[in-house]
């Protein structure tokens, strides 16, 4: 058995450079901060550009279904860059999670998502861990009834994928035309929304769907780790740069050993997060049997590292870090929300207890 | 057989060695010497000095094939300082004569080596060391005291850094020597440590004569030579992959599985956190190894030691609590001199105490954080008030 490759290929590095360059031009942090005041005008053109110019929406879709036929490794690199810019696009929710639900089906929606013609969201709470999610919506004939709270990506979506449980197992229905109720969220760059279904007509797109739903959430969790690594990496680099130029007591702050040691520890954790995230992405790309453990390890580790990096960045920036003007708060809010997203670290540790035979 | 295909070449050489020296009937030392002469000792060393000038990762192929054929090994753990630190330094700075004299018996284990660096007054500040070497005829006379010298009581030679010029700043007045541990004036005393045993020694050097032919590198160049040795120590991360639950986490996980009656919920979460951190450390090391193999610099190296020290300490501390009364029984306080460190052959109390040294030996965790901050992150160096002051004028 050959070892999973934890490095980046040249193709992946090229993709990273393209994504980074596009984000630099079209995702300024002031525009991202404006989302907290209700101005979401940055989202639509950015999302369209990422899809039309770089084709990121089709990365996980096979060429035969209208996608790019790339792998989770490339999607992970995109997420690293989106994390580094706290980019407010529904890549994780539509191009990873919702898309993965549909993989292997012949739904024409798959090609539409890949082409960026439509955007979808899986109607589960953002906190849903892969092994714990339970459908809360019921079907009567082809009509759906029920509520799902705190769904990520629903605000941007024009189609919802709704898991429904019945005596015959799980089914996923596609629903259009439902207006989600946006929720004022800790992280407005991935705003949550509540969904209420009052007998809306729906078409089943995946039957016998429990494994498809759990697998899609697992793919999301495995790749969210790369976004978290991207956040941590930005926080570390930005803090290092700031402390190199900020002077107090007649010297740069970066020369104080108490701060140097904190940054050294943060560097160590950030590099470790890179390895964990990379391993999960590679395991997903190869459909490796170790994927459940790789995912749980990455989520039990990387979410906490991203939060710590953002908290350290804020503290080490001092007063400026506490202002609305400085972007560090955008990263803190994203990191804290991501820590809850797709299962908190303690829920992934609980999953690991079963996976690696360390029972309570 | 072609040198354009190193893998085929080493395989052919292994086959030829085994054909000419059947391990079942050949004397152990004779076999090891033949292996050295065939260039199969350390294939990344140059031809004529036990190697073939091949990539380092081919060594694993050689080791595996010879082990499968029942060939004896050179007991690498018994001469860890020699193989891991002295040999790369001799290779980098030794004369042809020195390489020919020392490397072969070092590799075969006929001659054991130790390291005479740290002193009671020079730990993290190694360059401030006080052991003096004074020129005398065609050699040097050395006086001073070294400490934390593992294997000194078994060693035939020591790599020694001594001060040859006290009138220049500390880094510039050092010279590197090979010290005959059997020479008159070398006295070795065991240094008992908190575990009860004595892995290490104090070494007293009183009017020890060292011929100039045993100097390694130029006079005054000792710090640069010593840096080669210390870098080699940090490279010794190991060549092969580590299995999941390798090392201390495996011991604690087994204790957890074997004793359901001892499990408590608060310990469960601590154990799972440490399991995750151990697995992530394993992946970080895997990534570092892949980077090195791809020829990419991997600055994570300095952080790995920090991580392993912290995890060893946290895991062994957890295991004491998990075992409760059994955890505070201690297997043996007697003052023995172990051949090597054996974490898993002893009880948990030993692991708890011995792992305290992991954040001190080979660079303290505090110094390593300085190194990461300065060399990896590019932060300003610590103020060095002693940098330009002649060593003899430094306050102490």
From TrEMBL, chain A:
Its cofactor is FAD. The keyword Hydrolase does not apply. Residues 213-353 form the Acyl-CoA dehydrogenase/oxidase C-terminal domain. This is Acyl-CoA dehydrogenase. Keywords: FAD, Flavoprotein, Oxidoreductase. It holds the Pfam family Acyl-CoA_dh_1. It is an enzyme of class 1 (oxidoreductase). Residues 9-107 form the Acyl-CoA dehydrogenase/oxidase N-terminal domain. InterPro entries: AcylCo_DH-like_C, AcylCo_DH/oxidase_C, AcylCoA_DH/ox_N, AcylCoA_DH/ox_N_sf, AcylCoA_DH/oxidase_NM_dom_sf. Belongs to the acyl-CoA dehydrogenase family. Its EC number is 1.-.-.-. GO terms for molecular function: acyl-CoA dehydrogenase activity; flavin adenine dinucleotide binding.
TrEMBL record, chain B:
It holds the Pfam family Acyl-CoA_dh_N. Its cofactor is FAD. It comes from the Bacteria. Residues 11-110 form the Acyl-CoA dehydrogenase/oxidase N-terminal domain. InterPro entries: Acyl-CoA_Oxase/DH_mid-dom, Acyl-CoA_Oxase/DH_mid-dom_sf, AcylCo_DH-like_C, AcylCo_DH/oxidase_C, AcylCoA_DH/ox_N, AcylCoA_DH/ox_N_sf, AcylCoA_DH/oxidase_NM_dom_sf, Mycobact_Acyl-CoA_DH. GO terms for molecular function: oxidoreductase activity. Keywords: FAD, Flavoprotein, Oxidoreductase. Residues 114-208 form the Acyl-CoA oxidase/dehydrogenase middle domain. Residues 220-377 form the Acyl-CoA dehydrogenase/oxidase C-terminal domain. Belongs to the acyl-CoA dehydrogenase family. This is Acyl-CoA dehydrogenase family protein.
